């Protein structure tokens, strides 16, 4: 058995903000992928198989408590797990590129009964239903999930988040492979844990000043970046990115490992590149945006960079 491939995702804009109804833009990233497989006695496969056993128990509880939300063919699922099924994935965990999202999408695709398929006319209601189902499924891994990562992985389409109840698949300008500009991933070299970062954010949300900053600066600049990116307004995008990068450095320090504070600041001051969080931060990848990738590469020569999109 070898299931279909599910890709990682990158939330270009919207991390933390979408919890409070900012816009967001999420794109599939085909460099990393995963699939359900059987027959491998490696330690990694055994560990994954054990995790799937626990996940199956969780899903049983979910479909019992919310039968109208989702149901699965547990007989097949349990039989496959018994036979050693595991999730074979190149998606790094704790890096903000959706490792659990791809697994959730793969399980839904294979075992959900009465599933919403990618081939249907995906109305807003169907997208919201999928997002809701995936959010409840992925909560097993994160404690709380928006459901966007699995949705992106399942559809393999860019997703525009207008607000909590308004999401749509969208198209983004075609890449210019000859272009000098790029969106890239910067490897921090350490793993970021989602749950503690979200916990810190929720604590900060109790503070009036932080809430005002989120609404009047962070969300404002995030929304502007999403509009610019989708519409291909590159000049305006970089102006807004600079502001967003600044706001993140000033207000999301716990989500940025200390050794990156200076690197972050240098980008803003030199205009060679702007950094932002990729997922919840704390480690994993950061996202970089530059109008001249060669320049950014020289400035960040000590780090591993991976291009995601060319302008």
From TrEMBL:
Keywords: ATP-binding, Kinase, Nucleotide-binding, Transferase. Residues 85-149 form the GHMP kinase N-terminal domain. One of its GO terms (molecular function) is kinase activity. SUPFAM superfamilies: GHMP Kinase, C-terminal domain, Ribosomal protein S5 domain 2-like. It comes from the Bacteria. It holds the Pfam family GHMP_kinases_N. It comes from Maribacter cobaltidurans. The keyword Nucleus does not apply. InterPro entries: GHMP_kinase_C_sf, GHMP_kinase_N_dom, HddA/FKP, Ribosomal_Su5_D2-typ_SF, Ribsml_uS5_D2-typ_fold_subgr. This is Mevalonate kinase.
């Amino acid at each position: 058995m070898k299931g279909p491939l599910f890709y990682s995702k990158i939330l270009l804009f919207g991390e933390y903000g979408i919890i409070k109804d900012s816009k967001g833009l999420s794109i599939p990233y085909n460099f990393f992928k995963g699939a359900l497989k059987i027959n491998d006695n490696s330690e990694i496969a055994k560990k994954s198989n054990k995790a799937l056993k626990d996940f199956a128990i969780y899903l049983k509880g979910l479909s019992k408590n919310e039968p109208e939300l989702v149901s699965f063919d547990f007989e097949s699922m349990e039989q496959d797990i018994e036979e050693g099924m595991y999730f074979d994935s190149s998606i790094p965990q704790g890096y903000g590129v959706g490792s659990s999202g791809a697994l959730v999408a793969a399980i839904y695709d294979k075992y959900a009964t009465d599933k919403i398929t990618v081939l249907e006319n995906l109305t807003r209601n169907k997208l919201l239903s999928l997002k809701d189902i995936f959010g409840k499924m992925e909560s097993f891994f994160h404690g709380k999930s928006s459901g966007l990562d699995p949705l992106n992985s399942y559809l393999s389409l860019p997703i525009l988040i207008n607000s909590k109840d308004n999401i749509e698949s969208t198209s983004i300008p075609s890449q210019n492979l000859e272009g000098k500009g790029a969106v890239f991933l910067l490897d921090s070299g350490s793993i970021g844990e989602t749950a503690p970062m979200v916990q810190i954010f929720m604590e900060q949300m109790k503070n009036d000043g932080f809430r005002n900053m989120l609404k009047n600066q962070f969300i404002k600049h995030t929304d502007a970046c999403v509009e610019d990116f989708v519409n291909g307004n590159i000049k305006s995008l970089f102006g807004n990115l600079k502001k967003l990068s600044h706001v993140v450095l000033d207000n999301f320090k716990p989500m940025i490992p200390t050794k990156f504070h200076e690197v972050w600041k240098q980008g803003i001051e030199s205009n060679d590149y702007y950094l932002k969080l990729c997922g919840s931060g704390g480690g994993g990848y950061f996202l970089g945006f530059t109008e001249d990738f060669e320049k950014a590469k020289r400035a960040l020569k000590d780090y591993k960079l991976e291009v995601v999109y060319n302008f």
